[in-house]
Amino acid sequence: MALYIYNTLTKRKDEFIPVKEGEVSFYLCGPTVYDYFHIGNARAWIVFDVIRRYLEYLDYKVKFIVNLTDVDDKIINRAREIGIHPNEVAEKYSRAFFEDCKKLKINEATFNPKATEHIKEMQDLISVLIEKGYAYELNGNVYFEVNKYSDYGQLSGKKVDELIAGYRVEIDERKRSPLDFALWKKAKEGEIYWESPWGKGRPGWHVECSAMSMKYLGESFDIHAGAEDLIFPHHENEIAQSRCSTKGDFAHYWIHIGFLKIGQEKMSKSLGNIFTAREILDEFSPESVRLFFLQKHYKSPVEFNKGVLIDAENAIQRIKRCYFSLKEILENYEFKEDTINNNNKIDLDFKIPILNGMNDDFNSPIAIAKIFDLVKFVNEKIELGNFSNDEIYLLKEAKNLFDEMNTFFDIVPVKFEKLESTKQLIDLLLKVRNELRKKKEYELADKIRDELEKLGYVIEDGLYETKWMEK
Ligand SMILES: [Zn+2]
User: Fold this and answer.
1) Which residue has the higher pLDDT, 164 or 48?
2) Got the DSSP string for 253-298?
3) Ligand 1 mean position to 266 CA, how many Å?
4) Residues 223, 27: contact at Cβ < 8 Å?
5) Cα(366) to centroid of ligand 1, in Å?
6) Three-class SS of residue 447?
7) What is the Cα–Cα distance from 322 to 385, expressed in whole angstroms?
């Protein structure tokens, strides 16, 4: 089964053929660390986490790089607002980024390079562009000259003439063209800066991703990803400066995810309709957030409100109940391997359609729908209660498929279940025990306490409630 990916660069689904056989080099434009990330950002981190893990599931060795933009106008402004150094802002929100990703069950990247630790690489890239005649210095700033790169606009489908016509005339504009973008920005008074051949300043944002992606993945690599609003100008500019400074052709597959709207509106600070991932995770499980986004194709725009997560949460409970019933049955029934009549039903009806969905441009809604078909199928089998040898084998295959799919979707909350169910069970036993005590059936009530103590739990009867803890 070949994997096809919609490539923004070619505007079609291309078969995925990596630069190096068996390996994937994958760059994702990471966060600008000036605030907690919002639910729209969470969509990107989740979608690309699933894509990365799916590639690993397909047995590729994936090198997954997610940068941290830790110097930027937004960080500088934020630092000014709260009266601390920009580095403190960046450190605080970098930490928050990793914490929130962990809560969302997003696997760590292979490496998270920071912009401020790659200033030298960026300056080298800029120097090469100046030497080759693609960039020019102007009063302490360095600009990329868009007219020198004839393929400009290939990714976004924009035409240079139309772009120029769209610009208002700027006063004191000394750039050679209004489209020329900054590779190096002269430092303003009191602003954070680095020394450079062009004076004190800091890198432009676009050059950061070119320098870091090529440092870790090479001049030609496989996948470059981000949100749709990065196509222009960020990714268009990255392509221009990268291809002009090297012999490589930069990223081969460009993947972009659609917008997230809150109701009918685009989410924005000025509209005050931003939910941070943090506040959403106070109310909802990470599995429900993951499921909600995976039920939409990554390229589609998504309308978000808290109501949709209530539905997702219910759906997660359905999967969870099914999975744990399966587990329980399989722990209690044995089957004889040699007498099995294997009809490959689970593979044919569920696994292959799920993988076909994922191989068709990561069509997770199709795959997720099949997982719910599997839930229904398993629940029906369990309800019938006919646990013959063949039926148990079928259930075993079903559980294996849940486990396998969970390696990239991560929507079955398998790890926390034990702890949670133990707590529920003890609470239930103590409730029964209190009922017994009310009825003065002390012998049985004491027996429950003693048995729990043997299992390692201390029971304390207070005036109003009974508490328990592990010894
Ligand atoms: Zn970027």
Assistant:
1) 48
2) EEEEE--EEETTEEP-TTTT---BHHHHHHHS-HHHHHHHHHTS-T
3) 21
4) yes
5) 30
6) helix
7) 14
- Tokens 């050679």 belong to 176
- Cβ atoms of 95 and 278 within 8 Å: the answer is no
Distance (Å, rounded) from C-alpha 278 to C-alpha 103? Answer: 9
Handedness of CA 90, 91, 94, 96 (dihedral sign): negative
The model's pTM: 0.87
Mean pLDDT value across residues 217-238: 97
Contact in structure between 149 and 177 (CB atoms under 8 Å): no
Question: Using CB atoms within 10 A of its CB, is residue 95 exposed (0-12), middle (13-18) or buried (19+)?
Answer: exposed
Distance 120 CA to ligand 1 centre (A): 17
Give the tokens for residue 399: 């559980």
DSSP secondary structure letter of residue 344: -
What spacing in Å lies between the alpha carbon of 395 and ligand 1's midpoint?
45
The CA distance from 160 to 166, in Å, is 10
Three-state SS at 61? strand
Place of tokens 């934020």: 78
For residue 32, the CA-to-ligand 1 centroid distance in Å is 10
- Residue 190: the pLDDT is 84
* Cα 231 to middle of ligand 1, angstroms: 10
Give me the residue label for tokens 């696997």.
107
pLDDT digits (tens, 9 = 90+) for 358-382: 999 999 999 999 999 999 999 999 9
Residue-wise pLDDT tens digits, 188-211: 888 889 999 999 999 998 999 999
Structure-block tokens of residue 453? 């103590």
Q: How many CB atoms lie within 10 A of CB 197?
A: 11
Q: 213 C-alpha to center of ligand 1: Å?
A: 9
Instruction: Name residues whose C-beta falls within 8 Å of residue 133's C-beta, 6 or more positions apart in sequence.
Output: 145, 148
CA dihedral 104, 106, 108, 109 (to 10 degrees): -130
- Top pLDDT among 150 and 268 is at 150
DSSP SS3 for 122: helix
